[in-house]
Design a protein that fits this description.
single chain, 2 domains, eight-stranded mixed beta sheet, three-stranded mixed beta sheet, 13 strands, binds S-adenosylmethionine
């Protein structure tokens, strides 16, 4: 981890010099002000799950209403916790979502709840009462599990999860599952507010003190109140969407998929996405406690972690004017590799989806300006250079200055990764793109990389 700490200095700010006609097209905005109808980023079902580096829904809403029409299909190859899916559904659009993290498959049935009847608190209470009496057991397939829990907490959690894993996967059980994920973290030794698992003295002490109290009752009450809160969010979501029932769209989701090599099953009218950060975010590792409790195995999680951007070997070199300048300024080999890996797989994933856009469709890509070894990497510019050489038209860039951003839970970071602004790059597909898409597909096949087939995890020498 030492390497990660030194990876992105923020003290010296150097940027690759560029001739800059595109900068004239930067529009300064505040998405929160542009979309005043969303006053709370966690409204309706948006806040049911914590996830690192979530979109604020205002950005997505703005892109949807500006660049798509009702009934259009939107693709998001880096869907994370599915913000694009929720906003698309609320705006009567359709969405197809991909993410390497299988959590997406557990999140979406709750966040886009399509039930037609108000959910009953009484039924939920009955199920929760049954859970208390349960004799089932579920132990995560996690060799380290005892490191994160006291034996007595683990015993109670394994009974609760045993009950859930043995209950039909109906909506009430799914609601309780989402509550148990939060409870399982809170009653573990990991810090509550950091994304990655971190056993701290503070938390060890807190758990020690808790165990002297009526902790079982507290655990049960927390599960109950979080479940009730989620049930209420789902009912609000349903009431909100009910009047448009006939016009509501489809939301397809594919978690556990590597977007660098996934096939997008349909043509779409827009892409709206936020790629992984260039620095180490490690989404799979950050959510692995959840994934274990949900029944995923150590081997599965290890395999997925290897496919995370930017921890895998690049299989082609992305070249653009600005990227070349940055490469020349970088002196460290490991940083060059990280940069090459990042652009190779981020561009592969974007290009896979952008190849499936219809002519004239917009690609809206939300990125920051991270620094590598003190050098600013203008992601929007590099992506614009790459895709405008492949038949996309540069439309504009919105710059939103970061005031305070919640990276995870309540942890506020005024300047994540040294970034001061975030950018929404908008490209427009024109008719000749089809030719470029076909060229890339056949060149990949020549190099031995089937375009629309998931590959086995490559060597991970970029980590
Ligand atoms: C910035 S987050 C997206 C957050 C999302 N916009 C939201 O609102 O929750 C980037 C996502 O890229 C995903 N990712 C990383 N490598 C990937 C890959 N090879 N294929 C697909 N998704 C990947 C991560 O799991 C993470 O969820």
């Amino acid at each position: 981890m030492k390497e990660q700490l030194t990876l992105f200095h923020t003290d010296t700010e150097r940027a690759a010099q560029t001739d800059d006609p595109a900068s004239n097209k930067i529009e300064q905005v505040s998405f929160r002000e542009l979309v005043p109808e969303i006053s709370n980023t966690g409204y309706l079902t948006h806040a049911i799950f914590a996830y690192p580096a979530k979109f604020i829904p205002q950005v997505v809403r703005y892109a949807i209403t500006t660049y798509t029409k009702e009934g259009n299909w939107i693709v998001d190859p880096f869907a994370g916790s599915g913000t694009v899916g929720v906003e698309a559904y609320l705006c009567q659009r359709n969405a197809v979502l991909f993410d390497l993290n299988p959590l997406l498959n557990h999140i979406m049935p709750l966040k886009v709840y399509r039930g037609k009847e108000i959910l009953s608190e009484r039924h939920l209470h009955k199920l929760l009462d049954g859970m208390r009496e349960s004799t089932h057991r579920f132990m995560p397939a996690w060799s380290n599990v005892a490191y994160w829990y006291t034996p007595e907490v683990l015993e109670v959690l394994s009974r609760y999860w045993g009950f859930i894993h043995n209950t039909d996967n109906e909506i009430y059980a799914t609601i309780i599952k989402s509550a148990l994920l939060k409870v399982s973290k809170r009653f573990s030794y990991t810090e509550d507010r950091t994304p990655k698992l971190a056993r701290s003295k503070r938390k060890l002490k807190a758990i020690e003190e808790l165990l002297k109290e009526n902790w079982k009752q507290q655990l049960e009450e927390m599960t109950r109140s979080l479940s009730l809160k989620t049930l209420k969010d789902l009912n609000d979501f349903m009431i909100h969407t009910q009047p448009n029932l006939e016009h509501l769209g489809e939301v397809e989701f594919h978690g556990g998929i590597d977007s660098s090599y996934a096939s997008v099953p349909r043509e779409c009218e827009a892409l709206i996405t936020s790629p992984p950060y260039l620095q180490a975010q490690e989404y799979i590792r950050s959510t692995k406690m959840d994934l274990f409790w949900l029944g995923h195995t150590e081997e599965e999680i290890r395999e997925l972690s290897r496919l995370e951007i930017p921890y895998r070997k690049a299989d082609r070199l992305i070249q653009t004017e600005t990227l070349e300048k940055i490469r020349k300024m970088l002196t460290r080999d490991d940083l060059q590799k990280r940069l090459d890996s990042y652009f190779c797989h981020t561009v592969n994933a974007l290009e896979n989806s952008m190849n499936r856009l219809r002519p004239n469709a917009a690609a809206c890509i939300f990125v920051g300006n991270p620094r590598v070894d003190g050098i600013m990497v203008e992601l929007w510019r590099i992506l614009a250079e790459y895709f405008t050489e492949r038949g996309f038209v540069f439309e504009k860039v919105y710059e939103d200055k970061i005031k305070a951003r919640k990276l995870f839970g309540a942890r506020k970071n005024k300047n994540p990764d040294g970034m001061k602004s975030e950018f929404l790059l908008v490209l427009r597909k024109n008719a000749i793109c089809q030719t470029f898409a076909q060229q890339r597909e056949s060149s990949l096949q020549d190099e031995g990389f089937p375009q629309h087939v998931s590959r086995k995890s490559p060597d991970s020498d970029a980590s």
